[in-house]
Specification:
Elements: E1 18-21, H1 24-41, E2 46-47, H2 58-67, E3 70-75, H3 83-96, E4 107-113, H4 117-122, H5 125-135, H6 144-159, E5 164-166, H7 174-198, H8 224-236, E6 246-251, H9 258-270, E7 275-280, H10 291-303, H11 311-321, E8 325-330, H12 336-345, H13 348-351, E9 355-361, E10 373-376, H14 382-393, H15 400-412, H16 416-426, H17 431-439, H18 447-458, H19 462-474, E11 478-479, H20 480-487, H21 500-506, E12 511-513, E13 516-518, H22 521-533, E14 539-542, E15 559-563, E16 570-571, E17 585-589, E18 603-604, E19 619-622, E20 641-643, E21 664-666, E22 687-689, E23 711-713, E24 733-735, E25 754-756, E26 777-779, E27 801-803, E28 825-827, E29 848-850, E30 872-874, E31 883-884, E32 893-895, E33 904-905, E34 920-923, H23 932-948, E35 964-969, E36 979-982, E37 985-989, E38 999-1009, E39 1017-1026, E40 1034-1042, E41 1054-1062, H24 1066-1069, E42 1077-1085, E43 1095-1105, H25 1108-1111, H26 1121-1124, H27 1157-1165
Parallel strand pairs: 1-2, 1-3, 3-4, 4-5, 6-9, 6-10, 7-8, 8-9, 14-15, 15-17, 16-18, 17-19, 19-20, 20-21, 21-22, 22-23, 23-24, 24-25, 25-26, 26-27, 27-28, 28-29, 29-30, 30-32, 31-33, 32-34, 34-35
Antiparallel strand pairs: 11-13, 12-13, 35-41, 36-43, 37-42, 38-41, 38-43, 39-40, 39-42
């Protein structure tokens, strides 16, 4: 027995150790829920956004990031749908570099969940498309260019870190991946704890460290209700600054605090204004509370008289119109209750110049046409909710009680009523009672909460009730358009047809967030209770097939969800679904294994399966369906979504069936599928996923009837040898990746925008490919039989990205002059191309060019000096390359790692012009033949470019980020660095009379000795401490790289790293003139700990002053990209990667202007 001791002063729960950044609509109920729970079980205080209630400002989440020690950035295909995900990622990047407001440097661990790193780097596929769509959303014009710059930096940042990767097509289990993550997190937390123990921060004034400070109700200056009251007052203009009538609707779900807030406002205004009235409606007595009752309440309230003739109000209305009047209508459930008083009999109220009117309601639709503004009451955040819950239970929260408290607060989801009621239930109870109640939270509602929620449900019509329960049981966190399609009204004549989702959202019974339909846990629990209390069991959540044997009420069953994760293998009766004439939704799956690849179907069909002849099934999902085909008596006339991944089917049906409403079909990894019979009469099909159907040998010509098909995925269909000669009018995405027996390619749609032909056996592209005028993306990677490209490729004027990596027989790249308007990315690594076309005018807008691993290239004879938009040039392992010409002036990254024959570079390396790029990095690791004159040219270029940089353009927020850097073989530090030391520590005294006004930055140089046992991710880091001023230490990455995949980035012998950064952010730069002593410590790390095998041999430091030449050079006078291309826009890509064409990534830096993503997006928007 645990004794609970009342205590008025209780600390709030500890600050989070791990912040998890993820796309909630995609992963919340699956992968993240497992990861979050596992971290908690391991005693790690992990934080996800649901701990901070929806509706709160982003800065609340920022604070959680700042408080955390580790941040997990879980990138998935739908990650870029969310503005919040990207904004959080930006803050994580800033905090990892010890940005403003962060106590300690945050450790950021990128996690690629079923997402290729190259997809993120190249902004391709759904990930890139979502980013484009997010950027161009209406109403986001202000500052959106700055946002895309920050997002670009943040994505580059995660690509430069050690990452944990679960491949999209891998066989790894989610649970194994979760274990890897948890192990990694625990290791890093241990390192952090050790480091802090060894290097405790000094406490000012001596003595013991102060205890951690928590914000409590006693110490917090602003209570949550006060904050919300201020927000409402601002909308209402309670100071009467203008003479217009203000009518504000206060809306929100039951229990969120609408009435409490309205009464608090009334109590405050009643003391200042003579004419105030609050009219409270009772939903149980709504018939007695008509317009006459409302008018009477107005008379009595405004005139402060209990008995007066109603006509007296008309007499006095002229005088009241010039007075300050406050009216609150609370708990309005019917528009008629207030429409007539406000718009007819008492319309003088709204016409009065000094009226302030508040309408509280849980139905936003009731306010349409009445209010001038809306205030949606936000829920409490985690801290506010914890404080309210603690105040109710009045006990010391320690150990298990603390953890259980967090779960109660999390379940309440910021709803004050729920927190109060849970607190009342648990007040004075022992720990066993707490555990028991926690176990029933999702099965049994608190009576008070249930009554309030059911009263909302009772106000719905029958269609709305059905849709509400369907969402609760089958479609939480699903795409809004998808849900609308499945729930569309069955009565086409109904006025409400198709509007149910919107109506429920307006009544706060569901929420639509980032395009996903969500439902509060309180409402979900109430929904389950409603169904369980109904004897017809219209919606069934089953954990065993045996429960289908019940013969009673079968005609009432509307949906079935069967989770096979905890059931034993068993046969299913043939008649299991017979009699279920009302069945709309059927889902059979395994909750514990979302990928399904390793699961077994535990339901066998020894006698087949039978469905009602007049079935109305709309949604049919059965993972690992054991039958060879669907029942022949199954009529698909109402079917909208058919999902049978990993099934045993050979065909969907043995004959064609008309499926006029079918839109989505997923038969992926059905390895026995050899026929598409049964799908050929589905004219409205939108998406067809046949990935991994290894027995499928051909596509039928009848597919041309699929006039609306926009997406066809045939990835890994290894038996497919050709495509039919048909035209599909709407097809935009065609994926044939890994179709290793596909030898010929036919153009089956001239509307294609995305075409994947990588890893196929094709040896030539047909002339008809020149008709793909809408094609944006073409992937031909690993087409080892492809020897030539047709000249008609130049006709593809929309083409932006061409991937020819590892096309080892390709010797010539054609002169594609006509595509110069759009081509941004060209990957030619590991081909047999010996030279690029002599004229590069048609490639003037190219952003990324990859020629790595090409032994035929000996020199680059094309004119790169005029390629003003080229940002990334990759020449890795071009072992016969001997020289480099003049490089593009705006080049952001050159990677020449492993060019073992490279001897000379031009001097200057490139035109050292002021530029708007965010950083420049030149990698010459393992270029052992590089002549000393070439090394001097590289150093000279870095020095000149750093002197021409404006300090105001960089590092406005964070400190010591490498803006210009290089590395090459060597062991001697240049004389440019006038402070030098042997070893890893440099102590120096700065001159007191240096010209601080012209000082713009610092340059660092490090000599590192490498051995052959190296990590794929290394950082050369400098930590700078100032001994004579109170300025916190700063970290600076002199250089770094991150290799993707299994390739090891081995550096041989000693190498020199040089990095330049502008001085400090604006605030700390003002303190720098007082700095006279500094200590610089250099180390090589893998992102989390020091790499002992890599030793710092020498180090150097130099102050960088603005060049006299820079004063005479303006940004407008330089040959910028726009000037050279007659107004043509830049492209969009961040640092690019490929599967085995990765580059050493420099650190990123924030800037207010960038000519990469922005101009491309702007052009596309126009």
């Amino acid at each position: 027995m645990v004794t609970i001791v009342p205590s008025p002063d209780v600390k709030v729960g500890p600050e989070p150790e791990v912040f998890i950044n993820f796309r909630g609509a995609e992963l919340r109920k699956t992968f993240i829920s497992h990861l979050h729970a596992r971290l908690r079980r391991e005693g790690i205080n992990a934080f996800i956004d649901s701990d901070e209630d929806a509706g709160q400002e982003l800065k609340n989440l920022y604070k959680r990031i700042e408080q955390s020690k580790i941040a997990l950035a879980v990138l998935s295909s739908k990650y870029t749908e969310s503005h919040w995900c990207l904004q959080e990622l930006v803050r994580m990047m800033e905090c990892s570099m010890k940005g403003e407001g962060c106590n300690d440097s945050l450790r950021v661990i990128p996690i690629f969940y079923k997402l290729e790193t190259s997809t993120v780097a190249e902004l391709t596929g759904e990930f890139g498309l979502n980013l484009w769509n997010l950027w161009r959303l209406p109403g986001r014009d202000r500052g959106r260019d700055n946002r895309i710059v920050n997002w670009n930096d943040a994505l580059n940042f995660v690509l430069s870190r050690n990452a944990l990767i679960l491949p999209e097509n891998g066989n790894g289990k989610d649970e194994d991946f979760v274990s890897r993550i948890v192990h990694h997190v625990k290791t890093i937390l241990g390192q952090i704890s050790t480091q802090r123990g060894q290097n405790p921060k000094p406490q000012k004034g001596g003595g013991n460290p102060k205890p951690q400070k928590f914000h409590s109700r006693a110490s917090n200056n602003t209570l949550p209700e006060d904050q919300r009251l201020k927000q409402l007052e601002a909308k209402l203009d309670v100071e009467f600054n203008d003479k217009e009538t203000r009518i504000v609707g206060v809306v929100g779900m039951p229990g969120i605090g609408k009435t409490y807030l309205a009464k608090k406002l009334f109590d405050k205004l009643e003391k200042k204004i003579n004419h105030c009235v609050i009219i409270e409606f009772d939903s149980e007595n709504s018939k007695e509370q008509g317009s006459e009752w409302v008018e009477e309440k107005l008379v009595k309230g405004l005139l402060n008289q209990d008995c007066i003739d109603t006509n007296a109000l008309v007499v006095l209305k002229d005088s009241l119109m010039e007075k300050k009047v406050v009216i609150i209508f609370d708990n309005v459930t019917d528009k008629k209750q207030i429409f007539e008083p406000l718009m007819d009999s008492c319309d003088w109220i709204t016409k009065g110049s000094r009226s302030r009117i508040v309408i509280t309601t849980r139905d936003k639709a009731l306010t349409e046409g009445l209010v001038s503004d809306l205030y949606e009451v936000p829920g409490l955040n985690e801290r506010e909710g914890f404080e309210l819950f603690r105040d109710q239970v009045c006990c010391t929260l320690k150990g298990n009680l603390m953890e259980m408290s967090r779960k109660f607060v999390e379940f309440a989801g910021g709803n004050p009523l729920a927190l109060k009621e849970f607190g009342k239930e648990l007040k004075g109870k022992d720990e066993d009672h707490w555990k028991t109640r926690l176990g029933t939270l999702r099965q049994r509602s608190n009576p008070k909460i249930r009554d309030d929620l059911i009263s909302c449900y009772d106000e719905l019509n029958e269609q709305q009730k059905d849709v509400f329960l369907d969402i609760a049981f089958f479609f939480r966190s699903q795409d809004e358009n998808y849900v609308r399609s499945l729930l569309h009204s069955y009565d086409p004549e109904s006025v409400e047809s198709g509007q149910e989702v919107r109506n429920l959202a307006e009544k706060f019974l569901i929420a639509v967030c980032d395009g996903r339909v969500e439902m509060h846990d309180l409402l979900f629990t109430m929904a389950k209770e409603l169904v369980e209390a109904n004897e017809d069991k219209s919606r069934m959540l089953l954990s065993s097939g045996a429960e289908l044997r019940n013969k009673e009420g079968r005609d009432k069953v509307r949906g079935i969800v069967l989770d096979m994760s905890n059931m034993e293998e068993m046969p299913l009766e043939r008649e299991a679904f017979v009699g279920m004439t009302n069945l709309r939704y059927l889902k059979v799956y395994n909750f514990l294994c979302p990928s399904h690849s390793e699961t077994e179907c535990k339901l066998n069909l020894p006698d087949g399966l039978e469905f009602p002849k007049e079935n109305i099934v709309r949604y049919f999902q059965w993972v690992k369906f054991p039958g060879k085909e669907l029942p022949s008596d199954f009529d698909p006339k109402n079917l909208i979504d058919l999902s049978l991944p990993y099934s045993q089917i050979t065909s969907v049906w043995d004959c064609n069936k008309v499926a006029p409403n079918l839109k989505w079909v997923d038969l992926s990894y059905s390895s026995n599928l050899n026929s598409l019979m049964g799908l050929l009469e589905a004219p409205n099909l939108l998406r067809l996923n046949l990935k991994g159907c290894t027995s499928l040998k051909e596509l039928p010509e009848e597919m041309k009837k699929m006039k609306n098909l926009v997406y066809l995925n045939l990835r890994g269909c290894t038996s497919l040898s050709s495509l039919p000669k048909i035209i599909m009018d709407s097809l935009k995405t065609l994926i044939l990746s890994g179709c290793s027996n596909l030898r010929t390619f036919e153009v089956i749609s001239e509307q294609l925008e995305t075409l994947y032909l990588n890893s196929t056996a094709i040896d030539v592209l047909p002339p008809a490919i020149g008709n793909l005028h809408r094609l944006i993306f073409l992937n031909l990677k690993d087409c080892v039989n492809l020897a030539t490209l047709p000249d008609c490729l130049g006709k593809l004027k929309s083409l932006q990205e061409v991937k020819l990596s590892r096309c080892s027989n390709l010797k010539i790249f054609p002169d594609v002059k006509d595509i110069k308007e759009n081509l941004r990315v060209l990957l030619l690594d590991k081909t047999s191309i010996a030279a690029m076309p002599g004229s590069t005018s048609h490639l003037s807008l190219l952003r990324r060019l990859c020629l790595s691993r090409n032994d035929n290239i000996r020199s680059l004879e094309f004119d790169m000096g005029q390629m003003f938009h080229l940002k990334w040039l990759e020449l890795k392992y071009c072992k016969n390359l001997t020289s480099l010409p003049l490089l593009p002036p705006n080049l952001q990254c050159l990677n020449a790692h492993g060019c073992t024959s490279l001897r000379t570079v031009t001097s200057p390396l490139a035109r050292p012009l002021p530029s708007e790029q965010i950083h420049s990095t030149f990698i010459f690791t393992n270029c052992h033949e590089l002549e000393q004159a070439s090394k001097n040219a590289i150093i000279s270029y870095i020095q000149k470019k750093s002197e021409l940089m404006s300090p105001d353009r960089y590092n406005q927020d964070s400190v010591f980020k490498s803006l210009i850097g290089t590395c090459f073989p060597g062991c001697e530090i240049s004389a440019w660095f006038n402070h030098q030391a042997v070893g890893s520590v440099l102590r120096l005294e700065l001159p007191q009379d240096f010209d601080a006004g012209r000082l713009i930055g610092i340059a660092l140089c490090v000599v590192v000795s490498f051995n052959k046992d190296q990590n794929n991710s290394l950082q050369v880091k400098c930590t700078c401490e100032f001994t004579n001023v109170s300025v916190s230490p700063e970290s600076f990455l002199v250089g770094c790289w991150s290799e993707l995949g299994d390739e090891t980035h081995t550096v041989e012998s000693d190498h020199i790293f040089i990095g330049y950064t502008t001085l400090f952010n604006i605030h700390k730069r003002q303190q720098f003139p007082s700095v006279t002593e500094a200590s610089l410590r250099f180390e090589v790390t893998n992102g989390t700990s020091e790499v002992a095998e890599c030793k710092v041999m020498r180090c150097g430091f130099s102050l960088v002053y603005e060049s006299d030449e820079a004063e005479n050079v303006t940004w407008e006078e330089t040959p910028r990209m726009e000037g050279k291309t007659q107004g043509k826009s830049s492209s969009f890509n961040s640092i690019e990667y490929d599967d085995d064409c990765s580059i050493a990534t420099p650190t990123t830096a924030t800037t207010n202007t960038i000519n990469t993503i922005i101009t491309y997006f702007t052009k596309k928007a126009q």
